[in-house]
Amino acid sequence: xxxxxxxxxxxxxxxxxxxxxxxxxxxxxxxxxxxxxxxxxxxxxxxxxxxxxxxxxxxxxxxxxxxxxxxxxxxxxxxxxxxxxxxxxxxxxxxx
Amino acid sequence: xxxxxxxxxxxxxxxxxxxxxxxxxxxxxxxxxxxxxxxxxxxxxxxxxxxxxxxxxxxxxxxxxxxxxxxxxxxxxxxxxxxxxxxxxxxxxxxxxxxxxxxxxxxxxxxxxxxxxxxxxxxxxxxxxxxxxxxxxxxxxxxxxxxxxxxxxxxxxxxxxxxxxxxxxxxxxxxxxxxxxxxxxxxxxxxxxxxxxxxxxxxxxxxxxxxxxx
Lengths: 96, 214
Prior knowledge:
- Chain A has 96 residues and is an all-alpha fold.
- Chain A folds into 2 domains: 1-62; 63-96.
- Chain A has helices at 8-28, 36-56, 64-90.
- Chain A starts with 7 loop residues before the first helix and ends in a 6-residue tail after the last helix.
- Chain B has 214 residues and is mostly helical.
- Chain B is 77% helix and 0% strand.
- Chain B has helices spanning 15-50, 52-59, 64-90, 93-123, 139-175, 185-210.
- The radius of gyration of chain B is 20 Å and the shape is elongated.
- The chains are: A mainly alpha (96), B mainly alpha (214).
């Protein structure tokens, strides 16, 4: 955590961006973009989550040790997802 | 509990170190929460690939308007929570209490909408179990979708209930002047928790409501 006080306007700006992204992801869902639908949805969700983590959760202003723990948390999630799904796909159990 | 005049507990070198320790511990907790929800998301991804058509059909029974409205409500509650922490840092007690109450209100709105949605699923026999009914040959696969829907949104809603409880406790403590610009860790830590729960919904909403909407 930091003792740094983040200006209020930063919070309002992040809030506005999050709302716009929510609107965009809802709109995009009504168009059939094939595989791109999932890519768009996940990309927007990841951007939104990153903004929340960096600004609302103050990670951008935090010390290095916090950065390592945060990155470690998400890296472990990627291990869970990537290793398991690569196994499923490699065996042809999905999308058959 | 530290004395009113002590800026930090005796095991810490400085208030700064005490704050960093609290933040680090909270992030370790959140890291395990990521894995906790991560397993459910993984199950969802695997089953959605296995039963693609059934998941698309079942997902259409969710009301997009409720989901989108709740997403906006939760993002707004994250803003009020961030502003509450901001007020705590500056020592503005009344502003802090106001924003905490606003966050509780928005969290309650979210849970209220969730109750309406769950009620709708009960009425339409979309709750997995003996009374589950789904038109077509994909009934059992659709039941898996709704099992995951209730497990994921239910666990998320449980986190919201806990969050509202934490905020109520903060309101009680804040009105008694327990937080100062030197010591407001409980406000900041509850904020981290609240924002994390928001992030879970940021992923739940598109996965459950949006994918295969077109």
